[in-house]
Amino acid sequence: MAIRPADAFTEIPEVTGRRARWWAATKDFVRKRPLGAIGAVIVLVNIIVALGADVFAAYDPLATDYGAMLARPSTAHWLGTDAFGRDVLSRIIYGSRTAMIVGFACAFFGATVGAVIGVASAYFGGKVDLLIQRVMDIFLAFPLIILALAVVSILGTGIQNVIFAITVPMIPRASLVARSSALAIREMPYVDAARAAGFRHQRIILRHMLPNVMAPYLIMLTAFLGQAILLEASLSFLGLGVAEPTPAWGLMLRGAAVQFAEQAPWMAIFPGLAISLAVFAFNLFGDSLRDALDPRLRTQ
User: Fold this and answer.
1) How does pLDDT run across 287-300, given as a tens digit for each residue?
2) Helix 266-293 vs helix 214-237: angle between axes, to the nearest 10 degrees?
3) Considering the entire predicted model, what is its pTM?
């Protein structure tokens, strides 16, 4: 039977309606939470700059020019140069790539693994829940930076080790939040129905319970992004993070930036502003996203 033209486009109203709802939700978010929208724009700019660092940077971040050492900000070097004659702006642009890689990797793995552990702990309950939570409590007893320092001291420097060192302290925090939400979900009728149907524990946890903690999961994800960027900068500043000559914001603040603080203050000021702006933007966006997704905090 021939397909009528109207039948070929039956899904268009549904797609159009979905786009309209998304656009209306976006406009409502911007209107009610302008600071969160500003933070989202800054986050988007950071991502674009990180992805297009090769296009936006005017100089090779690793190229040295000893004839332009400690040059002041000018039309040739907008943010000046460092002690090796490297362009500060180019290194900040490439440093955003390092910050975004570490931030998104740590936030994703930390929030995801923590959410799975938290939901599983709430689902099984009893001695399993007690054992998991006591292990999480041990990790929670240490501040983020202290535990990250301990892990990276054992594993050594390098971006992979830094990601692992920052991810480990985030897991128990994500687990605690996910477990608190999953405790209520465990008592829902559809979970009892899944058990009665004979579904495996793995399926119930991953397909029936985990999707229902997406709201706190997204909130944790955005909150961890800012923390991960700040932790990576702290570790690099202490010499336990990314190693030279890799462009990294925290790495730009140590060494020569401290030695030439009076002679070339731009070496420390501009990387510090980049760190502050990125962390501030992620925190603003995360707080606004939490207000938008949490029913108890929504305004009528």
Assistant:
1) 888 777 765 555 44
2) 170
3) 0.83
